[in-house]
Amino acid sequence: MGKVYVFDHPLIQHKLTYIRDKSTGTKEFRELVDEVATLMAFEITRDLPLKEIEVETPVQMATSKVLAGKKLGIVPILRAGIGMVDGILKLIPAAKVGHIGLYRDPETLQPVEYYLKLPSDVQEREFIVVDPMLATGGSAIEAVNSLKKRGATKIRFMCIIAAPEGVEAFQSVHPDVDLYIAALDEKLNEHGYIVPGLGDAGDRLFGTK
Ligand code: URA
To answer: In this prediction, does ipTM exceed 0.90?
Structure first.
């Protein structure tokens, strides 16, 4: 079974409170999501492999560490996932960014892929799929299905708030994909919103409604 990592860093938790607050306006909401994404990227990259190189300091030669060149890909689920991309790229600017668009079929209620653009070397990359909310899990499951279908083997999923129902559904389909979240909330309500959640992440990020 995949693991669920809850990033309980005080800065993440502090910022998340203001993200949840309904009186936080679009500009501040977007900035906070960006900052939380950066902090989560810091945590999720903890296990990246390092290698040693020689570097000349003003004093003498030294052996020092750099990232071992693991190729990373970030895949936001449209549209709310876009709000997390820049924050992650601040820390890992060499990552390539794919995009996946999904809509919910009104009859089957299942997510259907309408857009997909991934880096060409899918098999060689480790992917972080991002979406601020893991609600029913439907979009996250389908996004990871799409990546696996194209040959991705190393995938993580990162979101800001998850519902227990979404975590369970996701893990039952993708037990090989670890989840990285800032908060595990109480439940989903009858409209599919996470409770207490933050409302509609896409609308709050982009000022629509
Ligand atoms: N998507 C959102 O943006 N918010 C929720 O609460 C659930 C799904």
So the answer is: yes
